[in-house]
Amino acid sequence: MFVIMVYDVGEKRVAKMLKTGRKYLNWVQNSVLEGQLSPGLYAKLKSEVSKILDEKEDSVIFYTWRTEQYTKREILGLERGAIDYFV
Q1: Distance between CA atoms of 87 and 84, rounded to whole angstroms?
Q2: DSSP 3-state helix, strand, coil percentages of the chain (rounded to 5)?
Q3: Cys bridge to 60: 7, 8, 12, 30, which one at CB 3.0-4.6 A?
Q4: 3-state SS, residue 35
Q5: Using CA atoms, how far apart are residues 28 and 48, in angstroms rounded to an integer?
């Protein structure tokens, strides 16, 4: 499935949330990650995120699609977190 993760967490948890998200997804820009995940990896990501999250202060939103085929991505301005491919 194609997943977009958007988060707004306390300053003390930002780095840890980004590090956890990057284990599974590609960083796109501040507090936004995206990528393809199996259902098992998606469940694992949500579990790890919930351990970092302070439910009284923080917010994490996951958008999911069965496939990236039905999404459209348009960038205006600077593209942050571009995926580099090494050969």
Answers
A1: 10
A2: 35, 25, 40
A3: 7
A4: strand
A5: 20
Token digits of residue 33? 């990650």
Structure tokens at 68: 């990236």
**Domains, in order of start, for the chain:** 2-65 (3.30.70.240)
> 60 near 7, Cβ under 8 Å?
yes
Segments in the chain below pLDDT 70: 75-78, 81-87
Report the distance separating Cα 12 and Cα 16, nearest Å: 8
Facing residues of 60 across strands? 7
In this structure, how many other beta carbons lie within 10 angstroms of the beta carbon of residue 52?
18
Length of the chain: 87
Q: Would you state the pLDDT for residue 1?
A: 92
